[in-house]
Amino acid sequence: MERSKMIYGKHLMLRIAKIKKHESLNDEEAIFAFLKSLVARLGMRVLAGPVVGNDDSGALKEGCSGIILLYESHAAIHTYTKQKEAFIDIFSCKDFETTTVFKVITATFGDFTILEEQVLSRGHHWNENLDAEYEAWTSKK
Fold it and tell me: Which of 1, 38, 79, 125 has the most CB atoms less than 10 A away?
């Protein structure tokens, strides 16, 4: 790829619904395991987490939120048990296949419907001396 057209990374944003195993949307251990499995399957490295919390207030928005910080960036999930829905967000400087993400979601939560799916290229911020900046960026470990 021509460096002048390079990006920092990919950002996948999903809203899924009609989740078959919707009871796991309110299960902190299931959300924790989902995040661990997701990043392992994508070949990413954990910097910290996952951290998972639960809103069991009985309100319409009850569910879990979880985030895992990665050396490659982050992955997050926010679930809504009563609606049988979830938002999933993955941002990474390491390229990944969205089909792998869908396989991990299915393995954890069963069948689902995609209501929203957006993939963005992020990081169009290279400076005027692109060759030098790219060389410095890729030489970092």
Answer: 79
Q: Residue 127: its pLDDT value, please?
A: 54
Q: Is the pLDDT of residue 4 over 60?
A: no
Give 113: exposed, middle or buried? Use CB within 10 Å, 0-12, 13-18, 19+: exposed
Cβ neighbours of residue 141 closer than 8 Å, sequence gap 6 or more: none
Phi-psi group of 35: left, alpha or beta (phi > 0 → left; psi -120 to 50 → alpha; rest → beta): alpha
AA letter at 38: L
Closest CA to 77 of 91, 68, 87, 85: 87
CA 140/CA 25 separation, integer angstroms = 38
Separation of alpha carbons 90 and 74, rounded Å? 6
Domains of the chain plus CATH, in order, are 8-139 (3.60.90.10)
Rounded CA-CA distance 34/32 in Å is 5
Backbone angles phi, psi at 86, to 5 degrees: -155, 150
Query: Which tens digits make up the pLDDT trace of 20-44?
Result: 999 999 999 999 999 999 999 999 9
